[in-house]
C-alpha cells in the first residue's frame, strides 16, 4: 500500500491482511512537494495569480486537475500540438480585494505528480517511488514477496 499525505509518503507491505512492519519504507516526498512545485511553475510562467492566493490555486490544481502520464515526451508533444485543447483555465477571486483573476493550467497538470517518479529533477530526494516500492518488497520475507 502506498499512502501519500501532506509531508511524507509511506510504502507499507501487506500480506494476507497483515502489515509487514519490518519492511515499511518512507520517503520525504508528498503532497506538499507537489503543491510547491506547481506554485513554482505558476510563478515561473508569470500567471496572474495573486501571491496570497497562489498556494490555494496550486492546491486546487493538484487536487482537481493533475494526472499521471505514462510517457512525458508524448504528453509534451500533445500539449505542443494542440495547446488550446490541452490547457485549461482556472479562475478565482483575490482574497482581499475580491477582484477576479484567471490563469492557464497546462504542463503542471502532468508534471506535478512527476515529483514521485522523477524526484531528482524537482527535489533533493533522489529515490523514485517505484524503487522504494521495490525495496519494500525485497525487504519482505521471501515467502510473502509474490
CA(first)-CA(last) distance? 15 Å
Number of strand segments: 7
Task: Point out poorly predicted stretches.
Answer: none
Q: Averaging pLDDT over every residue, what do you get? A: 90
Strand content: 15-25%
Spatially, the strands of the biggest sheet line up as 1-2-5
Range of helix content: 40-55%
User: Helix/strand-derived class?
Assistant: alpha+beta
Identify the overall geometry: elongated
Instruction: Indicate the radius of gyration in whole angstroms.
Output: 18 Å
Number of helices: 7
The main pleated sheet reads as:
3 strands, antiparallel
The run of helices and strands is: EEEEEHHHHEEHHH
Q: Characteristics of this structure?
A:
146 residues, alpha+beta, two-stranded antiparallel ribbon, 17% strand
How does this model look, in words?
With 146 residues, this protein is of the alpha+beta class. The chain has seven helices and seven strands, in the order βββββααααββααα. It has helices spanning 31-44, 54-65, 72-81, 83-86, 108-111, 119-122, 129-139, and strands at 2-4, 9-11, 14-15, 18-19, 25-27, 88-93, 100-105. The strands form three sheets. It has a three-stranded antiparallel β-sheet, covered by helices on one side. A hairpin with a 6-residue loop joins β6 and β7. The two termini are 15 Å apart.
Amino acid at each position: 500500500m502506498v499512502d501519500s499525505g501532506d509531508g511524507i509518503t509511506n510504502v507499507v507491505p501487506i500480506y494476507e491482511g497483515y502489515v509487514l512492519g519490518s519492511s515499511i519504507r518512507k520517503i520525504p516526498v508528498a503532497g506538499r512537494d507537489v503543491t510547491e512545485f506547481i506554485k513554482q511553475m505558476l510563478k515561473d510562467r508569470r500567471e496572474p495569480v495573486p501571491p496570497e492566493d497562489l498556494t490555494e490555486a496550486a492546491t486546487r490544481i493538484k487536487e482537481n486537475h493533475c494526472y499521471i502520464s505514462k510517457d512525458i515526451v508524448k504528453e509534451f508533444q500533445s500539449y505542443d500540438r494542440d495547446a488550446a485543447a490541452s490547457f485549461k483555465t482556472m479562475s478565482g477571486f483575490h482574497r482581499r480585494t475580491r477582484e477576479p483573476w484567471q490563469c492557464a493550467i497546462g504542463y503542471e497538470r502532468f508534471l506535478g505528480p512527476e515529483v514521485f517518479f522523477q524526484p531528482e529533477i524537482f527535489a533533493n530526494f533522489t529515490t523514485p517511488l517505484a524503487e522504494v516500492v521495490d525495496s519494500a518488497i525485497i525487504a519482505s520475507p521471501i515467502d510473502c514477496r509474490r
